[in-house]
Amino acid sequence: MKTLFPAARISDQPNARAMTNGNGTHGSAGKNGSNGSASIAERIARALPTLTPAHQRMAEYVLGNPFRAATMRIDEFADAVAVSVATANRFAHALGFEGFPQFRAELVRGFEATLAPVEKLRTELARPATVAEVFAASLEEDVRNLEASRRALDAETCERAVEAILAAERIFVVGFGASGFLAGLLQHGLDMSCRTVISVSGAGGASTAARQLFKLQPRDLLIVIGFPRYVYDTVAIAKRARSHGAHILALTDGPTSPLAPLADIALYAQTGRQLSANSDAAVLAFIEALCGAVAYRAAHAVKAAAEMTDFLLPWLHGAPPGQGRDAHEPREPRRDAAAEGRAKAATARRKKTSPNAS
């Protein structure tokens, strides 16, 4: 079967970035040196007096919708402003670019991380494939993610992470977006091995999470979860907690993550994916590995598991007779048909022997 998502696209180095030049840009795309470092807005401002009415309409669209324009092919852009493809290409020339591809590359600059999933999806959807091939390729992609994460494990960092979790008086877990669901699963996985684990990624959002984290004490641990595209609130809360002296463990994708420099300990999971921003399955597997390591090192882990299971028996389907939920629910007294019959007969005899009986 052909490979839909080539293995080479997933870097063994976490969070691989595009190469840039010294000033953080991707170099000149223009045909004229004076425009090499100019932004799209600056180019439009300089060229505006000489632009045709159609080109001015296109310029207004770009300035008003820079992100949307950056995601469009030339035919989509032309349709959006009701011009021909040739006119769209001439617009790029009017701004000093060799053609529309160079114009779009410049427009994308600054949106690279945000647009990466869109571009990957666009590329993969252009490849002919059956649904079964997409299924198989997606599973293969997660296998590669997990193998890359396994190879990148640092023994000392893993030890420090587990020790910090077990030593914490309370553990607060935070993540937003898809990481909010993962935060709940991490809380669930650590709950059996730790004293108190609280997920603050609830319905109240970042402000409610911040109110909870205001209660952080020196012996507590904050675990932050964030992967590209990083949610601003996660980073902001980590910065705030850090400024107040919180101990932080980060689950993220690599040293270039905005969460990495804020953390005392950082664990990195490879999460590359072609048809979405990240592989949540790869992160979940990493979380389960962390929870397994904590359970392995926790004192009285078996005793705690047995006690929790015993406590949960009333809510477990298929529990042994007398142990399931039905054992804890009130039951109606058993009806004895023979006894009811004898009682009715005695009542009838009393009626017959009564002085008032007719």
Automatic annotation (TrEMBL):
Q: Spell out the Basic residues composition-biased ranges.
A: 347-358
Q: Where is the composition biased (Basic and acidic residues)?
A: 325-343
Q: What Pfam families does the entry give?
A: HTH_6, SIS
Q: Which InterPro entries match?
A: Homeodomain-like_sf, HTH_RpiR, RpiR-like, RpiR-like_SIS, SIS_dom, SIS_dom_sf, WH-like_DNA-bd_sf
Residues in the signal sequence: none
Q: Where is the composition biased (Polar residues)?
A: 12-23
Q: Which SUPFAM superfamilies match?
A: Homeodomain-like, SIS domain
- Could you give a single Gene Ontology term from the biological process aspect? glycolytic process
Q: Name one GO molecular function term.
A: carbohydrate derivative binding
State the PROSITE patterns in the record: HTH_RPIR (PS51071), SIS (PS51464)
List each copy of the SIS domain by range: 161-292
Q: Where is this region: Disordered?
A: 11-36, 319-358
Q: Where in the numbering of this chain does the HTH rpiR-type domain appear? A: 38-114
**Record keywords, A-Z:** DNA-binding, Glycolysis, Transcription, Transcription regulation
Q: What is this protein called?
A: Transcriptional regulator RpiR in protein degradation cluster
Organism listed in the record? Cupriavidus basilensis
